[in-house]
Amino acid sequence: MRSIYLVARRDYLGYVQAWGFWLGLLLTPILMGVGMMAPTWAANSQPTRYYTVIEQGTEFADALRAELQEDRIALVRMTLDPVGVLNGEPSDKLLAFDDAIDAGSTVEAALEAAGGAQVSLPQADFVAVAPPATDEDSIRPYLMGERLVETSEGPQPLFAAIFVPEDNGEIEYWSENVTSRTLLDQVRAAERKITERKVFEAAGVSPRILNEAEKQRRDITERRARPASSDSGSQVTMADRAPFIASVFMAFLLWFLIFSVVNYLLMGTIEERSNKIFDSLLTSVKLPHMLAGKLLAVLAVALTLMMVWAIGGSVIGTALSGQMPADIRESMFSVAGAVLKPSLLMPAILSFVLGYLMYGAVFLALGSLCDTIQEAQTLMTPLIVMLMVPMFMIVVAISDPESPILSVMSWIPVFTPFLLILRVPTHPPLWEVIGLLVLMVVAALVVLWLASRVYRAGAVHGAGVGDVGKWFSKMLPGKKGETG
């Protein structure tokens, strides 16, 4: 055991004492946060673009302006009460905003009525301007940037021009930007609304009937037969959804950690093989002990990552909890509480350890066969593709956690560590959970046995990829007789 400890300590200190480890430790959550916020930042950083509508009257311009306004209203609603919007349970602040909008208030006035003055109102993406010209030839210089239109912000380039004919002719959308389709989609939506109104009027039906029907729509309360996780009786709340959200988070974290740390095993083993360090280590350490020590070292690295992230997240969450809206703070605590429940935490820990042992042993074995990183990359490709499958399954679970495909694929050992976590909140039968855990244990033992054989061939005997391929071929029925 002492030799295992010494190998594990040597490798662990080698990883955590490198400045790149701590740089990656700090940058990873920052980059993930940036990645999640990037779409919002990109949307908010878009410059205001100006368009014009050339038509007789203002019917189409008004309809287009209403469509653009609806998008802005939706963004403000999400900013005011994201949890309420997603759950369909609006807060008093959101209800006040909706009432003000229904009464005909502007977005600015409705936001003030909702008490959301502290919320930064998003700028309008597109603003209408008076037509600087009325025909295609005259409008071209404005679209090309050769001439500018007058706006409240001073002279600006014209982003798009929409020509609406008097008859039922084709509407023309002119713009030099052929990649951004946001305004074009709104133009189509505006035309659809106008057409619907005309059809209603032709049938003698007022379009206001649809608005009245929407106002009289009854609310739908989601309830469950099982005891709810709150004091609100059978009504489904965030506390009931928290276990599923926690399972998705934990499955992704497991995937991310395994995907990250097994690379240490591969690269470290390649370096030791190429530098002939194996020979020195094997003079004082038995090969099974060295294999176990290396697996334990990188497991300790993964645990270090989780511990630092957990402590950092707890400190930041506690420091900012006073500034968070009550509903968001309650949701975060509900998810955190679900993570700590033994019914989810224990399967997650076992899945992580067993999944790490399976994938870690495979990457160790591959590293022992390769002399260069280029050689290892050819072997890593199918493994990386295989590791991407659980990510697709997480997407499936978000839409339907009880999908039959999740149940079937969870019995494939290489996917079991990830998919078992996703299935726990759906309360699968106890025998199935135990069966999946036993399957993971058996699969991990088999992989460890095979990996140790491959590791011995590569580390001790200097075997390469081709040699191990021949060794596996001899295990197939009929191969020994053919070679003899």
In short:
The chain is mainly α and 484 residues long.
- Spans with pLDDT under 50 lasting ≥5 residues? none
Order of helices and strands: HHEHHHHEHEEEEHHHHHHHHHHHHH
The percent range for strand residues is 5-15%
Overall shape: it is elongated
Distance between the termini: 42 Å
Descriptive account of the structure:
- Keywords: Membrane, Transmembrane, Transmembrane helix.
- Residues 19-452 form the ABC-2 type transporter transmembrane domain.
- Helix content is 68%, strand content 5%.
- Helix 15 (373-399) runs parallel beside helix 17.
- It is elongated and about 90 Å long.
- By secondary structure, the protein is mainly alpha-helical.
- It is built from 20 helices and six strands.
- Among the domains are: 57-123 and 188-222, no CATH class; 243-478, no CATH class.
Annotate the secondary structure layout.
Elements: H1 2-16, H2 19-45, E1 49-54, H3 59-80, H4 82-87, H5 92-102, H6 107-113, E2 126-128, H7 136-143, E3 149-151, E4 154-156, E5 158-163, E6 172-175, H8 182-202, H9 208-215, H10 238-274, H11 277-282, H12 287-320, H13 326-339, H14 342-369, H15 373-399, H16 404-409, H17 416-423, H18 430-459, H19 465-474, H20 479-483
Parallel strand pairs: 1-2, 1-5
Antiparallel strand pairs: 3-4, 5-6
Helix pairs in contact: 1-12, 3-8, 5-6, 10-12, 10-13, 10-14, 10-15, 10-17, 14-17, 14-18, 15-17
Keywords: Membrane, Transmembrane, Transmembrane helix
Subcellular location: Membrane
Protein name: ABC-2 type transporter transmembrane domain-containing protein
